[in-house]
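Saturday, quiet lab. Running sequence design on the structure tokens for the scaffold JK sent over.
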């Protein structure tokens, strides 16, 4: 059973999936930092210093706190600013993945075009083909 598991784990698809998950997690952290530390502060400064991460709507009268963390302690809140930040995160990740896949597809098409073209026949093959065709006519 251990031998079967080792064979399964060493198949290319499982290893590729593991590498993809690890790289995806690292990429997600980079994009989260990009959105939270660069893009959203710029958007906030353009809109007059707004910090979207602290935008929320309290769902009860007991929620009176000025920050999201304190408001969550007081009761239920709709953290729509955090949702907006995560939506921008998703958009950036989706766009980057689209560009990567688009580039990979372009490279794949170029490789297929190179391999799809049959090699030109040699001069001997062309001559033998002409002789064959002449003999068929005779």
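Result came back. Writing it out in full:
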């Amino acid at each position: 059973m251990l031998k079967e598991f080792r064979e399964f784990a060493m198949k290319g698809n499982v290893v590729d999936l593991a590498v993809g998950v690890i790289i995806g997690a690292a990429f997600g952290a980079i994009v989260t930092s990009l959105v939270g530390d660069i893009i959203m502060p710029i958007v906030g400064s353009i809109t007059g210093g707004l910090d979207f991460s602290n935008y929320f709507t309290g769902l009860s009268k007991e929620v009176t706190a000025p920050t999201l963390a304190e408001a969550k302690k007081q009761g239920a809140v709709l953290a729509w600013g955090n949702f907006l930040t995560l939506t921008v995160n998703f958009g950036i990740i989706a766009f980057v993945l689209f560009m990567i896949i688009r580039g990979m597809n372009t490279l794949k098409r170029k490789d297929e075009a190179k391999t799809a073209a049959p090699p030109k026949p040699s001069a001997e093959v062309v001559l033998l083909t002409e002789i064959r065709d002449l003999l068929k006519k005779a």
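Notes for JK: The chain has a mean pLDDT of 83. Helices lie at 2-9, 12-46, 68-74, 80-116, 123-137. Ask whether to fix the surface positions before the next round.
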